[in-house]
Every structure is written in structure tokens, then in C-alpha cells.
């Protein structure tokens, strides 16, 4: 593998993840085009792009240096596309990419859930679409300012078109690992993402929510239910967190004082971190609950099972815009039958 930059990158979906990863690559010298909604692009055009993380890194990209577009530019020929739109926009984004870009263009889906890569492939069959996984939390902490609040390494399906990018991602501070089979990694990440709806309903920063045993019991119950469904489906989730998936529920149920000690690595989260689902609720946007708990419910149904607690979380998040409220830990436990 060479240290040379293999070509240009197009970020399809300039949200928190797209801006952070695309911005990190741009700060490392990669030509990056950001395609997004006017709401985000206008802020970037005014304030530029500021990237920070829990390790103390900081990058500032001035507004005039950013290439910002509301649609895929005519004649674009990116060597790599990072698909970072919300799950509900996957098919539309893939169709736009397939229409505008040459056949065979490599696209990595850096989206939550399990099914987005397949949905993108169906909508844009001429593209070389590969599944990916983002392990960390990124929050928009100010206009044009994005902060990575938790650790981790990106993952994607192995593909020859991606191997020359590995040193580039490493230098940019967003290291990427390739896997022959990404499905266990995706399910390992989804298990962790089951805290997103708990965090969103709590109304608390991520670390504050995880420091309350009642909320952790809700998170543990969702993981337990999902692990049971995965066993029936013959799926063994990869270890994405500091501890194996099978140990997470017991760890989460520990008393607060003991959890702080035992889960020190898991709690390497700074005070700025919050779930993107919480941001979606705050802005009145549709959440990605269907790509998280909804995936569990569908897998259970495929095997003649039910997943009532994950189904309940889907219902709560979908009902929230009509009845917005901050759920206490006790209320949420009662709603899940704990």
C-alpha cells in the first residue's frame, strides 16, 4: 500500500458523521466534496469546519476551503464515496449517486443498522457498495463544530478498492479496519446503539445517562432480548466495546459505585457526547429507531419470535413528537416491564 492519496472523496450526507470523517480526511490533504442539506451547508459556509476529539486533537478548516454542494456535482469522479445519510434517505441518495457517478464507483455505507447497504445496492445497482461501521459518537457542539466523544476504529467490508485508503485514514486520525465478513461487527455495534433510544428519551448527556443504574437496566434488557434473537438466527456478534457482548448486560446492571470502577474503559466518554437520536428528537426530526430496535424486531419475526421490549422502544420513539417528554429511569423501566 502507498501513502499517496488514491483520489477524491465525496461525502454523501454532511451530518455529524459525514462532517467529522470527511473533515478529518480534508485536514489530512484529501480533496473532499460535502453533499448535504442547506441547513448544514449554510453553517459550514459561514463558520468553516472545526473538529475536536476526546484525545485533544483539533483541526480547523476555513470556510473558503470547503467544497459544499446540495447535489452530487455534474462530472464528479470521486475515487471513494462515504454514504452518511440517515437511514430513511438511503435509497434516494443511492439513486442520485448511481445517476451521477460512473458505474463501479466505490461507496462505503457509514450508517447505523444492518440493512442500509442492501437498500443502497438495490437503489443503485451500478455502484460498488460496501457496508461500513462507525464505532464512535460524534456531536455537533456549535455551528460547524463537531466533536468525537468516544474512542474506536472505523470498519468496512474488505474490498481491493479500499486497501490503498488505509494509510490515508490512519494519517487522518480516523483509522479504518477491513473485514471479510462485516455482519458480526455490525450487530456488535447495533447492540451498543440500543442505548441511543434510552439516551434520547432520558434527555441527558450520554455519560450522565450511563451513570444511572435505572437507565442502564433498560439498555441491558434491550441487549438481552437482542442476544436471544441473534442466537436463534445463528449470529455471533463481534466484540465492539471494551467487553464481550454477552457480558454487557451483567456489567450494566451493577450498582452505580461498582459500575464506575469496573466499567472505567466503557466510561471513556466526555461530557460533550450525546446520541444523534437525542439530537433528532430535539430538532423534531424522524429518528433512526427503525434501523436499530426495528432491525431486532424484524429478525425476531423472521424466526417466528417476538422482541417486545425493542418493539416498545420503536413505539415510544415514534410517538414522541406527539407527546414529547423526558422519561425518568423509573418510568422507562416500567414501560419496558422491568
UniProtKB/TrEMBL annotation:
One of its GO terms (cellular component) is cytoplasm. Keywords: Membrane, NADP, Oxidoreductase, Pantothenate biosynthesis, Transmembrane, Transmembrane helix. Residues 9-154 form the Ketopantoate reductase N-terminal domain. It comes from the Bacteria. It is an enzyme of class 1 (oxidoreductase). Its EC number is 1.1.1.169. Pathway: Cofactor biosynthesis; (R)-pantothenate biosynthesis; (R)-pantoate from 3-methyl-2-oxobutanoate: step 2/2. Pfam families: ApbA, ApbA_C. The keyword Glycoprotein does not apply. Residues 182-318 form the Ketopantoate reductase C-terminal domain. The chain crosses the membrane at residues 12-36. It catalyses: (R)-pantoate + NADP(+) = 2-dehydropantoate + NADPH + H(+). Catalyzes the NADPH-dependent reduction of ketopantoate into pantoic acid. Belongs to the ketopantoate reductase family. This is 2-dehydropantoate 2-reductase. It comes from Variovorax boronicumulans.
Amino acid at each position: 500500500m502507498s501513502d499517496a492519496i488514491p483520489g477524491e472523496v465525496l461525502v454523501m450526507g454532511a451530518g455529524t458523521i459525514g462532517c467529522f470523517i470527511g473533515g478529518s480526511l480534508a485536514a489530512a490533504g484529501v480533496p473532499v466534496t460535502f453533499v448535504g442539506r442547506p441547513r448544514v451547508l449554510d453553517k459550514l459556509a459561514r463558520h468553516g469546519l472545526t473538529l475536536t476529539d476526546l484525545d485533544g486533537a483539533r483541526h480547523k478548516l476555513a470556510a473558503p476551503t470547503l467544497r459544499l454542494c446540495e447535489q452530487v456535482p455534474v462530472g464528479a469522479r470521486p475515487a471513494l464515496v462515504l454514504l452518511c445519510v440517515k437511514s430513511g434517505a438511503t435509497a434516494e441518495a443511492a439513486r442520485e449517486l448511481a445517476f451521477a457517478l460512473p458505474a463501479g464507483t466505490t461507496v462505503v455505507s457509514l450508517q447505523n443498522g444492518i440493512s442500509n447497504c442492501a437498500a443502497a445496492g438495490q437503489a443503485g445497482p451500478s455502484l460498488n457498495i460496501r457496508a461500513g461501521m462507525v464505532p464512535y459518537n460524534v456531536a455537533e457542539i456549535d455551528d460547524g463544530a463537531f466533536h468525537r466523544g468516544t474512542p474506536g476504529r472505523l470498519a468496512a467490508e474488505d474490498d481491493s478498492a479500499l486497501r490503498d485508503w488505509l494509510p490515508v485514514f490512519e494519517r487522518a486520525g480516523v483509522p479504518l479496519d477491513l473485514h471479510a465478513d462485516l455482519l458480526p461487527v455490525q450487530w456488535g455495534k447495533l447492540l451498543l446503539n440500543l442505548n441511543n433510544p434510552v439516551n434520547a428519551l432520558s434527555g441527558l448527556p450520554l455519560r450522565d445517562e450511563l451513570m444511572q443504574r435505572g437507565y442502564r437496566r433498560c439498555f441491558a434488557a434491550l441487549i438481552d432480548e437482542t442476544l436471544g434473537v441473534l442466537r436463534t438466527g445463528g449470529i455471533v456478534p463481534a466484540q465492539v466495546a471494551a467487553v464481550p457482548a454477552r457480558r454487557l448486560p451483567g456489567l450494566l446492571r451493577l450498582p452505580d459505585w461498582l459500575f464506575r470502577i469496573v466499567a472505567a474503559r466503557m466510561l471513556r466518554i466526555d461530557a460533550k457526547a450525546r446520541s444523534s437520536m437525542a439530537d433528532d428528537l430535539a430538532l423534531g426530526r424522524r429518528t433512526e429507531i427503525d434501523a436499530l430496535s426495528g432491525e431486532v424486531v424484524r429478525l425476531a419475526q423472521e424466526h417466528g419470535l417476538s422482541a417486545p421490549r425493542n418493539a416498545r422502544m420503536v413505539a415510544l420513539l415514534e410517538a414522541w413528537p406527539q407527546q414529547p417528554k423526558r422519561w425518568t429511569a423509573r418510568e422507562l423501566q416500567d414501560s419496558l416491564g422491568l
